[in-house]
Amino acid sequence: xxxEPLLQVRRLSKLYDIRQGLxxxxxxxxxxxxxxxxxxxxxxxxxxxxxxxxxxTTIGRSVLRLVEPTSGSxxxxxxxVTAFDRPQLRDFRRSAQIVFQDPYASIDPTMSVGDAxxxxxxxxxxxxxxxxxxxxEKLLTDVALPADFARRRPSDLSGGQRQRVVxxxxxxxxxxxxxxxxxxxxxxxxxxxxIISLLEDLxxxxxxxxxxxxxxxxxxxxxxxxxxxxxxxxxxEIGPSRDVVATPKHPYTEALISAVPDPSSRRKxxxxxxxxxxPVSPPSGCVFxxxxxxxxxxxxxxxxxxxxxxxxxxxxxxRDDIL
Amino acid sequence: MTGITExxxxxxxxxxxxxxxxxxRSVVAARGVSFExxxxxxxxxxxxxxxxxSTTGLAxxxxxxDGAASVEGSIRITRKNGMTDDVAALPERRLRQLRGxxxxxxxxxxxxxxxPIYTIGTQIIEALTVHRRMSQREARGEAxxxxxxxxxxxxxxxxxxxxxxxxxxxRQRVMIAMALSGRPALLIADEPTxxxxxxxxxxIIDILKALxxxxxxxxxxxxxxxxxxxxxxxxxxxMYAGQIVEEGPVDRVFAQPRMPYTQALMRSRPxxxxxxxxxxxxxxTVPNLAALPQGCSFHPRCPHFLPGRCDATEPPLEVxxxxxxxxxxxxxxxxEGGL
Lengths: 323, 339
What we know:
- The complex is a heterodimer of chains A (323) and B (339).
- Chain A contains nine helices and twelve strands.
- With 323 residues, chain A is α/β, with parallel strands linked by helices.
- Chain A has a single domain, classed as P-loop containing nucleotide triphosphate hydrolases (Rossmann fold, 3-Layer(aba) Sandwich), CATH 3.40.50.300.
- The two termini of chain A are 26 Å apart.
- By secondary structure, chain B is α/β, with parallel strands linked by helices.
- Among the domains of chain B are: 113-183, no CATH class; 250-336, no CATH class.
- In chain B, the strands form two sheets. Chain B has an eight-stranded mixed beta sheet, sandwiched between helices.
- In chain B, α4 (120-132) crosses α5 (136-149) and α4 packs parallel to α7.
């Protein structure tokens, strides 16, 4: 990327304290996110793939400062997000929004759909009382819902319709960047495609940049320009979607892709042994080595550096002789 | 009930209707579901939420007939003793003998199926003493061997653990061990890997495949995930709005689905490695079971909807060729027209 990226994340870490006993003595840390760096360009969609406990949700929330990072730098349009005070943070929320997985938990059931969509406009003071109905109608149209939905209650809506409302609400403030945390995972298969198409359309029409968090690699490949793979809070691989899926360079990515069931192909499957280790005491060196089919004694020695293996394609693995 | 020969199918479901609530406000979750399963066969029952797939699975164990629901039709299971029983007509006392011994079930969320206040050992050993009338000692030994078979690395440690101390993948292994404790001829697996990460899902699917191979038990695999179906099953039943809409061999149905809903479902899924190929969303939503559309229940979302025909009469499940059934009145003309 030649121009300055929209979002620049450097060495992001988030540690949660583990406290025990009468005096809440600090006994350790959970390393939810550990030294993660990436960029997202204007109108670019970066997919963030990982299993549960990989830190992908914490990364998504940290870049919006919905959780406070322990260390590292997050620059949005050149400004340091970690240094924002409350008014600056409020302004930042106009540029960056989030869509969560569960559309049932994301809308106040006592509000009408119209009020729910208008709430961010009111809070941010972006529209006067008289302008609100028009703005709400426009937003409903943007997410392909009929204008009369404004008067409906969330309980009248299906899961897919609710997720559209959640997206409309995130779009209300006119953001340039959205964190979408598993936005289709709670939906039925036939409804998922509708929301995926909507997100695709918003990306091209509004030029939205996105951090698309998902455990579903097929959906992610479809929607993302680049994919980042995280495991136990660490970045394993990042590169163009097509390359990461077709020719993964990290053993974990290879296993993750091979585990995706596919009705049409019979790919070689790599079955990883065991479970993800505890983030309280992650393995030394490469955190994946305990499950890696290619691990060598050297893998325990030092945390592997992230290296560029092809233009724009990086991996954190010491072995170049395998993939 | 009569004794039956070797060639008898393991399971014959005939015109199963399950409804909840009282008419006229009742919701019919399964609307005339009929299918058969042979011994050792792995069949997938696929559908979205509200398709009736889970209800059908539960009905096979006699788990929906209580009070709130009414069950019509018959579910004939050939038992280990060679007798055939109709699950839909059995009294609860007899159902209890059938459950676990002839048919067992595993569910999506193992945490809610295990008792949180007892150790894993207590729970597996209980199952073994009940189903196989083993002594505590024998049961302990069998529990250890079952867990080993399921790829549990330290089975002794697992036995003294409580459910919350185990990972999701481990808990599902324990559930499978318990389900296998009665050596059932049929295992109903209702979304057993949906709550798990993909790498753990791959482990569990691998184990199920191996177990099926070793024990020869039949598996009815209930899922919404089309990809998983092809990993495991030979035959697929596709459900929509309480009915089977297509039934056939997995490989061929997936390569060339013939019912418009199955076709649309296949086109709506992005495929890994298929970047650049467009997906086509299915418009509209799954119909409300309390207010089903007239005629074919897929017609409001169907690209081949023909007014006056598709919304007039309910299409029958037609045999298109041996082993392949389609519920669509237009399937012939659509195929002849190359659609």
